[in-house]
Amino acid sequence: MSDRYDTSGNPEADFEPGSNGLVLANLLGVTNPAVMSEIELDLLIRLQDALVEEVAVDQVFSGADLCAWHHRWLGEVYAWAGKYRTLNLSKDGFPFAASAQIPRLMALLERDILRLYTPCQGLREQQLAEAIATVHIELILIHPFREGNGRIARLLAILMALQAGWPSLDFSAWDANRDAYFEAVRAGLTDPGPMTRWVLPVLRASRVGNLP
């Protein structure tokens, strides 16, 4: 993970001793990145399965929900799970929101976006794609957590789609085109259209074999 973000001068930037700078300092003492990836994936699947049963079709999602999900997912792994990050992050030279601004930006995300675009009950395909794209862009650009932002954003997209009657989403198109996906996220600073066009194939792939 050392090549993903530029970090310095904050305990959240610490790596587990013996991991060669590949695994963030953790409560389990894991030093192997492949092992940590498996642990995180297993815990995420467990959380997703639980939330699919818990989330209501008329639920308005909130910043508190996202923090709670993040803590439920990674609370036994990282001391900072469920808390907004306190260091600045960038990816490929692109800076995410300054850490000092995260509480304010998350409050705006909740007030101006989550309350507007959720719940997704009754949305048609294009409307749902636009809602997911708008929420996804803002959440990724804020990048509120030290780690796991993309996965939390995908989890939120899955739950939004669930509210609209979709099955679990298939993100293969994003995984196969990571650079183009991230370019669409960055374009979302001024235009959500490119990201909406990336959400549509995700929705359509998810419906294959699942149509009523």
Name the features:
212 residues; mainly alpha; two-stranded antiparallel sheet; 53% helix; globular
Structural write-up:
With 212 residues, the protein is mostly helical. It has a single domain, classed as Fic-like fold (Orthogonal Bundle), CATH 1.10.3290.10. 53% of the residues lie in helices and 2% in strands. Strands 1-2 form a two-stranded antiparallel sheet. Helix 7 packs across helix 8. The mean pLDDT is 93.
Write the layout of secondary structure elements.
Elements: H1 33-54, H2 63-74, E1 90-91, E2 94-95, H3 102-117, H4 125-142, H5 149-163, H6 172-175, H7 178-187, H8 193-207
Antiparallel strand pairs: 1-2
General shape: globular
- Assign the CATH superfamily: Fido-like domain
Helix content: 40-55%
The number of distinct helices, counting runs of at least 4 residues, comes to 8
Number of domains: 1
User: How many whole angstroms does the radius of gyration measure?
Assistant: 17 Å
Q: CATH fold name, please?
A: Fic-like fold
Percent of residues in β-strands = under 5%
Main sheet specs: 2 strands, antiparallel
**CATH class value:** Mainly Alpha
Structural class: mainly alpha
Distance between the termini: 41 Å
Q: Return the CATH architecture.
A: Orthogonal Bundle
- The mean pLDDT is 93
